[in-house]
Amino acid sequence: MTLENKQIKELITSKWDESSATYDTQHGHKVKSLEEADAWKSMFKKIIPEGKLDVLDVGCGTGELSVLFAEMGHNVTGLDLSEKMMEKGRLKSMSQGLSIKFLKGDAENPPFDEKNFDVVITRHLLWTLPNPKTAVKNWNRVLRDGGYAIIVDGIWDDGSLNTRVRRFISSLGILIFEQANPWKGNYSKELAASLPNASGTSLEESRQYLKNAGFSKIDAYDISHIRKIQKQYMSFWKRIGYNYDYYMLYGEK
Fold first, then answer.
1. InterPro entries under this entry (predicted)?
2. Distances (CA, A) of 91 to 12, 27, 63, 67, 146
3. What CATH number has the domain bearing residue 247?
4. For the whole model, what pTM was predicted?
């Protein structure tokens, strides 16, 4: 049984509100080191032009990428359904003396006029959208001509035996030796069944989303080096299960 769109958005918002207190403790979400921050910035600089740009961080969560782009000197707006996640972002912005706007809104239909931004950035978002095709088309809408959409995403569960074994061992180790619940925060089966990319979004699927939305000059970067940096700060048991296919894709309007 699948849910109605309004129900899906309400459940997603509630889930991330609930997760806001511990989200930044999770490796792969929180930027844990200066080395990782510099690696992200270096990758972004390969795509976007120099100068002060207007950047929209869609599904910004606790504002990790918003902070990075603001540190790079850009005008940044963060958009998310979860006010509690954005509260964390506002605190980061204030504590670091940055000026980032955080607005409540739907990533699938950003509440902005056409041609408002130079860059739309999204990380770990496509899997949690019920209508990803609509979302990417609307990201194109709010971009100025010559602007860029950047998607950082991956396959979180490829369904293979190798992945199932690794995740089982990882979860068991976390449960026994770290005395933590490795399944806490997972979507319900009903909610996951309502999302077309609940297990993640492949590079080719994301490429097709950009192409269908009218983007050109579509290309991808390998960011496995960033994953290696992230794994340095993980426990042994978390590293075992952290075997995602991970990529950065971009397209020009």
1. Methyltransf_11, SAM-dependent_MTases_sf
2. 22, 20, 10, 11, 32
3. 3.40.50.150
4. 0.92
